[in-house]
Amino acid sequence: MASVPNTPLLGDRAFGPRKGPGSSRGIDRRYLYGGVALAIVVCFFALNPFREVGPGSRGVLMTFSSVQPNVLAPGLHLVLPIAQSVVQMNVQVQNFQNKEEAASRDLQTVHTEVAINYHITPDDAAWIYQHVGTLSEVESRVIAPAISNAVKAATAHYDAADLIVQRDKVALEIDTLLRRALQSYRVIIDAVNITDFQFSQEYTAAIEAKQVAQQQAQQAAFTLDKVRVDAQQQVLQAQAHATAQVAAAEGQAKANTMVTATLSPSILQQLAIERWNGVLPIYLGAGAPMPFLGMGK
Asked: Cystine design at 190: which of 117, 176, 186, 247 (Cβ 3.0–4.6 Å)?
């Protein structure tokens, strides 16, 4: 019987020898899957999936531009790259100033400059961003109109002249109105200050003229009072001087009366002897007594 040559089958020629489960092809697949996973991880971290929320801020998380209700606290947060983003909202105290024109109760035009300190509620940062916007939009859309309405409402309760002297009371009314208006927008008012009141040039000139007239009247009244006081002082001085002179004259007269009452002829002779120098007069008039010749009597 003729022998058949040992030649490989067609299938073996086309695909090679069959390999079992421990062959090198299975190992190559595992390397492939591991490389793909590693590439995904590298790409994930290359897209920077971490977002940091700074101190004094809150993070608003958005997924494909849709605001999520949860608010991110300060710190490092992991988000999905491309799908999610974070907008930071400052929750610290902010300062906002605005100028408003209003009419007083006596229909004078008043330009008022108001400065407020405010902050947004931290837990409502997502709601504020969704319904209003950023802080600049909160100021332009919510706070500025509220200040305008509050200033006009408060100014209308006072005359123009009273606005200056009752500035603190006006600021308190504006503060109350602002708190009531901004409460629904989750905006908290910390302080309200009126930094300036300005009036029309005509009214300002009238106020200055009135103040000048009042100062002149006060100066005239002061001068008149001074003249009156000086006159009263002169009268009192004259009265005191006259009273002193009368008292001195009365005292002298009383003293003379007392001295006269105590003088007797003997005392008078004794005084004369004490004062005599011992020299007799050279010439005597007719009938003039000789001094001390009668003392023996």
From this structure: 117
